[in-house]
Amino acid sequence: MFWANQTKLLVLLVLLFLAFLLFQPFYCPSHSPGLIRKSSQKHVLILSTCRSGSSFVGQLFSQHPDVFYLMEPAWHVWMNLSCANAGQLQMAVRDLVRSVFLCDMSVFDAYMAWGPRKQSNLFLWQTSRALCSPPACHLFNREAIIPPADCKTLCSKQPFSNVQEACRSYSHVVIKEVRFFSLKPLHPLLTDPSLNLKIIHLIRDPRAVFRSRQNTEQDMMHDNHMILGKQWNTIKKEDRPYYMMKIICQSHKEIYEAAQLLPDSLRERYLLIRYEDLVQDPLTQTAKLYEFAGLPFLPHLQIWVHNLTQGKGMGKHPFDTDSRNARNISQAWRWSLPHDKVVKLQKICNDTMDLMGYLPILSEEDQRNLSMAVLSTLELP
Ligand SMILES: *[C@@H]1O[C@H](CO)[C@@H](O)[C@H](O)[C@H]1NC(C)=O
Ligand SMILES: *[C@@H]1O[C@H](CO)[C@@H](O)[C@H](O)[C@H]1NC(C)=O
Ligand SMILES: *[C@@H]1O[C@H](CO)[C@@H](O)[C@H](O)[C@H]1NC(C)=O
Ligand SMILES: *[C@@H]1O[C@H](CO)[C@@H](O)[C@H](O)[C@H]1NC(C)=O
Ligand SMILES: *[C@@H]1O[C@H](CO)[C@@H](O)[C@H](O)[C@H]1NC(C)=O
């Protein structure tokens, strides 16, 4: 009697085990769809520094109907942990970026006040077309070009949970960040099997960056303070912009050189683009960016980008810089910066400029003479 029971139990256990093997896929309903989603979603990081045209590149992606886009999510990290410096926060920024790529928006719990949240609690949320169209907001069409100003007026009341829901409904997640100064913290993301990450490294002529930063000095105070860290107090006020440019130029060089050392399988996940090339020929360069990201250059986007080159912007709300303006603005340093400052910058950023094909200007006459080239063609390996 005892042995018979034992045998029955054994048979039952074997049957249960077989059943488990057979039906295992259905036992983990919460895992399987997640895995499928993660491996098919593509992730793009637009890696740049302030005043380098990254908002413009961000819009090229944000307006694509296959893209969920967020601009500077790490702003929240820097605002809430502002007693630390940029270097100390790199890993926190990296982890936030990873969570956003995986559409896990609970990561913002650490950086936002408690209580009911709206999607408008996100920094510059209205620059994300995905947060202005279904499923986040039903007042615009998903396939439309949506001006951020219109979105801000009409979609600001939507709950924060819409951000995650919207993110999950797209094939591509694109983030723009100016808060990384090295490729090192990003290396684990490049090899992370749950991500499918590509990096667009956007650079701009340091002389143009310097001029643009001068015009927005007040807005950049907080960031500059965090980037210079303890050095802030020891550097004279008038020297700070040059120290900043030194850090910016060095970090671009380091990122570029680190990317060249990646194994081939990762090296192809990195693309360098110069802002000047983009504003000179937006259609060709946008096609290149989309191809790299695995996005189709849809007809309405081709018309839109063409319109930008004609200075038509987006109706009465062109985004910050339309491309005709951008072409002019990218040369503005040549008449608005004193030549001695240009010389100083060329010294500070010498290596980076040589590497990226930015030509030095040797006299004041040459600086003002717009027929003198300041850009050589960039032959990338
Ligand atoms: C984080 O910063 C935001 C914006 O400055 C603020 O509203 C929020 O209360 C801060 N949260 C924490 C936990 O400090
Ligand atoms: C392009 O410009 C034309 C003429 O201004 C305008 O009618 C059209 O809506 C624009 N298209 C896009 C996609 O921006
Ligand atoms: C470029 O900008 C300068 C200064 O704002 C202006 O004087 C000039 O007319 C502009 N050129 C073009 C082609 O828009
Ligand atoms: C950098 O310095 C080298 C050597 O002095 C010089 O030949 C080169 O033109 C400089 N490049 C720039 C962009 O100033
Ligand atoms: C401006 O530069 C061009 C190209 O180098 C040169 O041919 C022209 O003589 C220069 N003009 C003046 C006024 O220096």
UniProtKB/TrEMBL annotation:
**Where does this one sit in the cell?**
Golgi apparatus membrane
One GO cellular component assignment for this chain's record is: Golgi membrane
Instruction: Tell me the GO BP annotations in alphabetical order.
Output: carbohydrate metabolic process; N-acetylglucosamine metabolic process; sulfur compound metabolic process
Q: What is its EC number?
A: 2.8.2.-
Describe its membrane topology. Single-pass type II membrane protein
MF term (GO), any: N-acetylglucosamine 6-O-sulfotransferase activity
Q: Does the keyword Transferase apply?
A: yes
Please list the residue ranges annotated as the Sulfotransferase domain.
Answer: 42-356
Q: Which Pfam families does the record match to this protein?
A: Sulfotransfer_1
Record carries keyword Transferase? yes
Keywords tagged on the record: Carbohydrate metabolism, Glycoprotein, Golgi apparatus, Membrane, Signal-anchor, Transferase, Transmembrane, Transmembrane helix
Give the top-level enzyme category: transferase
Family designation: Belongs to the sulfotransferase 1 family. Gal/GlcNAc/GalNAc subfamily.
Q: What is this protein called?
A: Sulfotransferase
